[in-house]
Amino acid sequence: MVTKRSVSLADDVATAVETAAGEDGVSFSAWLSTAAERQLRVRQGLRGVAAWEAEAGALTAEEIAAGEALLARLLSGVSGMASRVRRR
Amino acid sequence: MAVTRAGLVYGVGALRAAARGDRMMWAVHRAALANGIIPVVPVGVIAEGYRTEARGDRLQSLLDGSEVEELGDDGARQAGELAARVGTTDLVAVEVAGAAARRNCAVIASRQNAMKEAAGLLGHELILYAV
Description:
The complex is a heterodimer.
Chain A: H1 11-24, H2 28-56, H3 61-75, E1 80-81
Helix pairs in contact in A: 1-2
Chain B: E1 7-10, H1 12-19, H2 23-34, E2 40-42, H3 43-52, H4 56-63, E3 67-69, H5 72-86, H6 91-103, E4 105-109, H7 113-121, E5 128-130
Parallel strand pairs in B: 1-4, 2-3, 4-5
């Protein structure tokens, strides 16, 4: 099922979406729909993190920075191993 | 450092780490989402995770921010053939390696030789954070 909506986009965004949709071989609407779907998934995922934090305690600034650093290392192609396990 | 991997694939070890409340696991999951990266979880990993972990609520919280990768007919055949070449019965580990190779992703999982061998047979260097 598809819902038709009228949306307004900044000119440069619309142009960029048009280009990206063409490169990906999908329609303008399909590209926007996929982008929205991803954004909703991220939002839902961060709510999932918050649900765990509500039970286990919020991640500290240091833990958040450590998570960012680990992600950066993995995306850079560096393997690693958990050095310690803290449970809550 | 240059980015060489496009995202993350979670193996069963990642789900287990989340279920037991491993704070680094949750921190890296949060970091991925905050950077617009949606981790991928092969469907077999989910089945195995729910088979072995009692904290289904924590698994669900993790999966809320993940993309489930279906296997399908072709995927199942390829996973089976690859497992045979590796000489393993661990289809889930092979499934994770396949997803990582197809999507050029790093992996968070427990350390497994079968996964590394499967990735190698696919011509993909396994980048693994072992939990």
